[in-house]
Design a protein that fits this description.
This protein is of the alpha+beta class. The protein is built from eleven helices and nine strands. Helix content is about 35%, strand content about 20%.
Length: about 260
C-alpha cells in the first residue's frame, strides 16, 4: 500500500499526470494507475524505471512513507541528482595499475567499443584491455583512450583515438569543452559539451562539423565523462583558415535553435 501511495505522491510532487508517467515508462495508463491504487504491485524493474524517471533512488521509494514527509525531506530526496552529478555518491571507476602502483592508461579497442557501456565497471572487462604510456600527462590524473568513428569532430578523424581525463564532478565542466561521454543508449560519443546540468539536468552535445545537429542527453543517461586531453591519429589533419570560428558560430546558432524548439 505504501509503495502505491508513494508513487501517487511522487507524481503529484513533480506535477506529472498519469498519462505522462505511464508513457515515459512504456506502460498503458490503466496498468500504471493500478500500481498507484495498489491493485497490482510493480516489479523491481518498474520501480527502477520510476526511480530513473524522477532521478531518485529505489531505496527512497521503497523505504519511506511520503505521506509523512515535510518540505525539507522532499528537498533532500529530490535533490539526489546533485550527488550523481558531483560524484559525491560512489562513482565506480575500475582501472589497471602497474607493478609500482601507477595508474595505466587503458585503450579501448574498436572491437570492444560497443560493449564498453556494459563493461566499464567490470574488473574482468577492464583487466583485458591493452594499455599505453603517455609520460607527458600528469601522474595525478586518471586517463583512458577511446576509439572515435565518423566525421563529426574534425580535425579528429575517423579511426583516431581520443585520450580523456576522468571527470568526477560533472557540474564543474565548462561549456564548449570537448569530452568523451559514455551514455546508456549511445555508448561512447565524442562531442562538445554545453553544460546545463545545474539548471536543466542535462547536457547539450554538438559537433565541430556543422552538418551534425545539436542534441541533449539527460543526466540520468550518462555513465561517465572524460575530458579531452589529446588524440592519436595516423592522418595529418587539413586546416582551413577561419573554419574554427565559422564552426563555432554555427554551433552557437544550432544550440540556440535547439533551446527555442524545446521550449515552444
Amino acid at each position: 500500500m505504501v509503495v502505491g501511495n508513494n508513487l501517487k505522491l511522487l507524481r503529484k510532487h513533480f506535477g506529472k499526470s498519469q498519462d505522462e508517467v505511464s508513457k515515459s515508462l512504456g506502460l498503458n495508463r490503466s496498468t500504471y494507475s493500478g500500481y498507484e491504487n495498489a491493485v497490482a504491485q510493480p516489479s523491481l524493474e518498474i520501480i527502477s524505471m520510476i526511480s530513473e524517471f524522477y532521478n531518485i533512488s529505489i531505496d527512497a521509494i521503497l523505504k519511506n512513507d511520503f505521506s509523512t514527509f515535510n518540505s525539507s525531506q522532499w528537498t533532500r530526496i529530490t535533490n539526489g541528482w546533485k550527488s550523481s552529478a558531483t560524484g559525491s555518491k560512489l562513482r565506480i571507476l575500475t582501472s589497471q595499475v602497474s607493478e609500482s602502483n601507477e595508474e595505466l592508461i587503458e585503450m579501448i579497442p574498436v572491437k570492444a567499443k560497443a560493449g564498453y557501456a556494459l563493461g566499464y565497471s567490470d574488473p574482468e572487462f577492464i583487466k583485458e584491455l591493452p594499455t599505453i604510456r603517455l609520460p607527458f600527462l600528469s601522474k595525478n590524473r586518471k586517463y583512458r583512450t577511446f576509439p572515435i568513428s565518423g566525421d563529426s569532430m574534425p580535425p579528429v578523424s575517423d579511426g583516431s583515438f581520443v585520450v580523456g581525463e576522468f571527470v568526477q564532478d560533472w557540474t564543474l565542466i565548462s561549456s564548449e569543452t570537448p569530452c568523451v561521454i559514455v551514455t546508456k543508449d549511445d555508448g561512447i560519443v565524442f562531442k562538445i559539451i554545453d553544460n546545463q546540468i545545474s539548471k536543466e539536468k542535462n547536457v547539450l552535445l554538438s559537433s565541430t562539423n556543422p552538418l551534425y545537429e545539436t542534441y541533449s542527453v539527460e543526466l540520468k543517461d550518462i555513465l561517465e565523462i572524460w575530458m579531452f586531453r589529446c588524440y592519436i591519429s595516423m592522418e595529418l589533419p587539413e586546416t582551413i583558415l577561419g573554419e574554427d570560428s565559422i564552426s563555432s558560430s554555427i554551433r552557437s546558432i544550432q544550440k540556440s535553435l535547439f533551446r527555442i524548439e524545446n521550449k515552444s
